[in-house]
Amino acid sequence: EDQVTQSPEALRLQEGESSSLNCSYTVSGLRGLFWYRQDPGKGPEFLFTLYSAGEEKEKERLKATLTKKESFLHITAPKPEDSATYLCAVRDTGFQKLVFGTGTRLLVSP
Amino acid sequence: DGGITQSPKYLFRKEGQNVTLSCEQNLNHDAMYWYRQDPGQGLRLIYYSQIVNDFQKGDIAEGYSVSREKKESFPLTVTSAQKNPTAFYLCASSTSANTGELFFGEGSRLTVL
């Protein structure tokens, strides 16, 4: 069974304090790993797709990386507006549906 | 502006009543989805539709029903058979069912009194 585990559950940073969020996954064959951002009371917003180990994607202060077992979302010099829940999801080669992790709640204080 | 519109944003229902959540998209996407989000749990798939007049059950379809009579619309009915319907419901769409790049609506929060 496909599994996605995100850590930590919650993370509090000071503005400018860089850190990383982790997404560990178990699939029979990876057909894509996806990162989303979700603000409170809103729907998730797509950020990145990663397909193969070694791949990296960047957007502003965010950089996503992928290995054969996990993905990291690196946040460089975060700002308060980066505060949100970050969700990770995977798609297995054998299935069409996405499997989501429970997310990491990020709070960036000024 | 293109996007997905869910309504209502908040809904209260008495036990034993059916309720229908609306989802409309103007992105010309073929695939549409309904997810349920509960605290401490990942998004769970209720139903999805790859094309008009076709839909498949997800992981937690019991107590729910859907229809896909138009490409733009994918309403979800929460029936009285759903044992624990209080949750945040999210509708999404994508260009096809083969992509993980989903566009989500703002969500509908259902509370059963």
Task: Record keyword descriptors for this entry.
heterodimer; A: 110 residues; mainly beta; 6-stranded mixed sheet; 5-stranded antiparallel sheet; globular; B: 113 residues; 7-stranded mixed sheet; 4-stranded antiparallel sheet; 0% helix; 45% strand
What does this protein look like?
The complex is a heterodimer of chains A (110) and B (113). The N and C termini of chain A lie far apart (41 Å). In chain A, strand 9 and strand 10 form a beta hairpin. Chain A is an all-beta fold and 110 residues long. Chain A is built from no helices and 11 strands. Chain B is an all-beta fold and 113 residues long. Chain B has no helices and 11 strands. In chain B, strands 2, 4, 5, 6, 9, 10 and 11 form a 7-stranded mixed β-sheet that branches. In chain B, a hairpin with a 6-residue loop joins strand 5 and strand 6. At the A-B interface, strand 5, strand 9 and strand 10 of A face strand 5 and strand 10 of B.
How many β strands of chain B by DSSP?
A: 11
Strands of chain A, total number = 11
> Which structural class fits the helix and strand makeup of chain B?
mainly beta
Helical coverage of chain B, percent range:
under 10%
Number of helices of chain B: 0
Please give the alpha-carbon distance between the first and last residues of chain B: 36 Å
Secondary-structure element series of chain A: EEEEEEEEEEE
- Strand content of chain A is over 45%
Report the oligomer: heterodimer
The best one-word shape of chain B is globular
* SS-based class of chain A: mainly beta
* Poorly predicted runs of 5 or more residues of chain A: none
User: Which regions of chain B contain 5 or more consecutive residues with pLDDT less than 50?
Assistant: none
Give the DSSP E fraction of chain B (strand runs of 2 or more residues). Answer: over 45%
Q: What share of residues of chain A is helical?
A: under 10%
